[in-house]
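USER: I would love a firmer grasp of how sequence relates to backbone shape in proteins. This is the protein in question:
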Amino acid sequence: MRIPNTIIILVSVILLGGWGCATKTPALRPECPSLDADDYYFPQGALDPARPKIDGFLRNWYSKYLRAMLEPSLSCGARPEGFAYRFLWLRSFHHPIAMRVEKNGPSVMFNAVELDGTGGNAPGGIVKSVQRELSSAEQSEFLAKLARVDFWELGKNESRFGLDGAQWLLEGAENGQYRVVERWSPNPGPYRDVCLLLLEFTGIKIPPLDFY
């Protein structure tokens, strides 16, 4: 089986330095860096505050996919009310997908982007995008599942990694705060449930063998 280049590097990083924990910045950055800056999407130290090299590797890896998806940064810019949450799903050998729920005013909008690359090598280009308003029932279901995750209080990331599988990256911006939490092919539970709900909102059908 061909092992993706990114996964080989990732495993090397893990073996040499372990893995960091999720962190919460005290406040959203009021101004965004330039789009090509390495901290446009993720502030320095957001992914591994104790190890700058690992933090930089992860920020660059995840950011190249979000740039290819034309996604906005959730960690900066004015957000006086409402919230935004995004699930970035990077499977080793399958299409990358990002799903975002955003409330600005009375409406809650849902946006999703699928690329034709793979999560372990190159992003590719956009092959599908979804933009729609969530129904009241969908909003309620999302907020209920998010509450069960206790997103803002989640502890250290699970240290489960391998040469296959997927990175599950969940970001949140609300009440002037920003946080990002990672999981590697998480076990069934609240974290996985809220991410899968966002995938369900896309309408994209994922074959069982492609599911991590």
Notes: Residues 11-21 have pLDDT under 50 and may be disordered. The two ends are 17 Å apart (CA to CA). The chain is about 25% helix and 25% strand. The longest strand covers residues 83-91.
